Amino acid sequence: MRRNKPKYKQIIEAAVVVIAENGYHQAQISKIARQAGVADGTIYLYFKNKEDVLLSVFREKMAMFVEKINEAIAEKETAADKLFVMIENHFRILSEDKNLAIVTQLELRQSDKQLRYKINEVLKDYLQVLDHILEYGKEQGEFSAGLDTRLARQMIFGTMDETATTWVLNEHKYDLISLAPQVHGLILHGCKANGKLSK
Amino acid sequence: MRRNKPKYKQIIEAAVVVIAENGYHQAQISKIARQAGVADGTIYLYFKNKEDVLLSVFREKMAMFVEKINEAIAEKETAADKLFVMIENHFRILSEDKNLAIVTQLELRQSDKQLRYKINEVLKDYLQVLDHILEYGKEQGEFSAGLDTRLARQMIFGTMDETATTWVLNEHKYDLISLAPQVHGLILHGCKANGKLSK
Amino acid sequence: MRRNKPKYKQIIEAAVVVIAENGYHQAQISKIARQAGVADGTIYLYFKNKEDVLLSVFREKMAMFVEKINEAIAEKETAADKLFVMIENHFRILSEDKNLAIVTQLELRQSDKQLRYKINEVLKDYLQVLDHILEYGKEQGEFSAGLDTRLARQMIFGTMDETATTWVLNEHKYDLISLAPQVHGLILHGCKANGKLSK
Amino acid sequence: MRRNKPKYKQIIEAAVVVIAENGYHQAQISKIARQAGVADGTIYLYFKNKEDVLLSVFREKMAMFVEKINEAIAEKETAADKLFVMIENHFRILSEDKNLAIVTQLELRQSDKQLRYKINEVLKDYLQVLDHILEYGKEQGEFSAGLDTRLARQMIFGTMDETATTWVLNEHKYDLISLAPQVHGLILHGCKANGKLSK
DNA sequence: TATGAATGAGGGTTCATTCAT
DNA sequence: TATGAATGAACCCTCATTCAT
C-alpha cells in the first residue's frame, strides 16, 4: 500500500508547504519534488498525476479533520455542545496550521471544475458529521423539528467557511478560535433579538 | 467612455457565456472574441488585458446585483423584510441567469490570488448592503443589540453563497428561489428549537 | 508631388523623434502619427508602408548630409583639406542633432536585411562623395597612386562611422567634432611612426 | 556545467545556421530547435531565453575569434606583423564560415538596444587585443608616440568591420582574405602619397 | 525504486494596415 | 484629404509527464 510509505506523506506535506508559499498556480511538480527531497519522476510512482497529488492533499487533511472532530464530538452530550466543539475545532485546526488554512481556504479553490467536484466528494465525509449532529439535535428536541437538514448544514458550513476565509484574507491578524462562541450563538439563535432581551 | 459603447457590453456577455460553457481555464480570448463576433484584437481596444475582461465581468454583474437589490430593499420597512428580499433577489438573479451563476459560484473562484483580491474589493459594495441592513435592524431593536456585524454578515453571506454553490454543483436541479424563506428563517432564528414556535 | 507637402516633412521629423526616444522596435506607426499630430491612416496617404517611412527618413537626412558636405568640400582646394572638412562636417551634423545621431548610428541598423540593402543604396550617394575626393587626390598626386579607391573609402567611412557610433554609445559625453583632426591624421598617415617624428 | 554539454554547442551551431538562412527576425526558437534536432523546450534547459541564445552565439564565436587571433599574434615579433595577422585572421575566420559572417556582420546588428549593449560588452575582449597591439607598437617605437589608442582602435576596427560588411553585402563575391595586405597598408600608412618613404 | 533530461502542446498580446465615413 | 476603429496573424515560454538508465 503506497499510502503508508514514508515518501507518500513526505510529498503530501511538501505540497502543502509549496502551495501555501507559492500559490496554487505556482505549485509546480518540480517545486513539490524539490521540497520533498525527491526527483520529479518519483512523484509519479506514488501519485497518478498532479491532480491526484492535490486531491490527496485534501483527502488526507480532511480525514485528519474528521477524525479529530469526531473524537471531540464524542465527548459531548448535547447537540449544541457537539456543534460548539465542532466549530471550535474547525477553527483550531486551521489556526494551528496556517499553511493548511491558506491551502484549503484560498489556494485549492483555484482548481478547475473537475477537481472541485472531486474535492466536494471528499468534503461529504465532513458534511456528514454535521448532518449527524443536526439529526441528533432534532431527535433530542434541541433543534427545531422542521429544520431542513441540508439547508441547515449549508448555513453552518457556509458560516464557518466564510468566517475562516475572511480570517485568512485578513492574514490571520485576529484570533479565529475566540470567534467560536459568537458563531455558535449565531447558528443556534440567528440574528433576531430574542424575546427577553428585546423587550 | 469605452464602457458605454455597445461592444463593451457585447464582450462582457460573450465572456459570461464562454466561461460558463468552457470553464475558467478554457476561456481563451480567442473564444470570447468569436462568441462576441469581433476580432481578437478588438478586445484589447476595450480591455487592458485578459484579467481586465474577467474582472470587468464581475464588476458589471456585481453592480447589477447591488442595484437590483438596493431597489428591492428600499421598498421594505423592517430589517427582517429587507433581509428576506435580499436573499430572495440574490437567489432570483442567479436563477434567472444560470450562466452567470456558474461563472460567479464556480468559475471565477479559480482566478489566481491577485484577481481574487480585486474581486474581493468589488464584493465589498455588496457586503456593505448587508452591513446596512444589520445596523438598521440593530437600531430598530429587531436584531439583537450584541450582534457582531462582521460575523453576522459572514454568516449571512456564507449561508447564501454556500446554498447557491451547492445548487450550482447540483446542476440547478431544484428550485433555488423557493429556499429563500427557510434560509431567511435559519438566519433569523438559527437552528435551535424555539419553545413557542416549534409547538 | 507628395514630398513637398508640409505633412510629409512633418511625419519624417516625427519619426526621427519617436525612433530616437523609443528605439527602432518601439517606433510604432501610431506613435509617429501622434507625434506628427495626424491620424494613423494619414501616414498611408504619404508613404507606402512603414518601411517606406523609415527609408524616407534615411533618404531625406542623407540628402541633407550630402548637400551640406558638398558645399563645404567645394570651398577647399586640396584633397586633404576636402577630406578634413568632410570628416569635420560629418561629425558636426551628428553633434548638432543628437536624435539624428542616435537614429542613424544605432536604431536604423536594427532594420531587417531588406531595408538594410535599400539603405545601403541610398548611402552610395554619400560614398561617392568620398570616392570623388580620393580620385581627385590621386590625380593631384596627394594620395598614393596605387590606392585602391574602394578599400580606402571603406577605411575612411568605417573609421568615421565607428568613431561616431562609439561616441553615441558613450552617450555623447565627449566632443566629437574635436576628434576630426586626429581622425584626419590617422586616415592620411596611418599608425606608423613617420621617420622624422620618431627620431 | 551546461556549456560543455554537447547539446549546448549543437544549439549554438543551429542558431548560426538558422539566423544566416532566415534572418534575425525570422529566427524563431522553433526553427532553431528543429535545426538542432531537439524539442523547443530543450533549448530552455540550456538557455534562459531567446536573448540568451543569441548573446551566447556571439559570446562563443567571439571567444573563438579572440583565441585564434591571440595564438596567431603571439608568433609575431613586431606590432606591424601582429596587426597583419590580426587582420588576415579576422578575414580568414569570416571567409571560412560564411554563415557566421552573415550573422555577425548583418543579422545580429538587428538586435534591440539592450542586446546590442551586451554584445558590445563581449566585443570589448576583442578590442582589447587591438589595444595591446597598439600599446606594444608605441612602446617599440613602431607606431607614432602621439597615437590616440582609442581613436586608432576605432579606425582599425571600423576599417576591418566596414570591409567585412561590404564583402557580405556583396554576397562574398570576391576574396576577402586577399584584401588583408592592402588594408594593413592603409592602416599603417594612410592614404597619403609618401614620395620618399615609398622608395 | 529512483532519477532527471527531454518532450511539445498551447495562448495572450501587439501592431501594421485597411476602409467606411 | 483625413480619420481611427477594427482586423488577425504570429511566437516565446512553461511545465506536466515520460522513459532510458
UniProtKB/TrEMBL annotation, chains A, B, C, D:
Write down the DNA-binding region ranges: 28-47
Q: Where is the HTH tetR-type domain?
A: 5-65
Keywords, comma-separated and alphabetical: DNA-binding, Repressor
Q: Pfam families, per this entry?
A: TetR_C_4 (PF08359), TetR_N (PF00440)
The record's Gene3D superfamilies line, in alphabetical order, gives:
Homeodomain-like, Tetracycline Repressor, domain 2
**PANTHER family, A to Z:** ACREF/ENVCD OPERON REPRESSOR-RELATED, ACREF_ENVCD OPERON REPRESSOR-RELATED
- What is the official name of this protein in its record? TetR/AcrR family transcriptional regulator
Q: Which species does this protein come from? A: Siminovitchia sediminis
Q: What is the lineage of its organism?
A: Bacteria, Bacillati, Bacillota, Bacilli, Bacillales
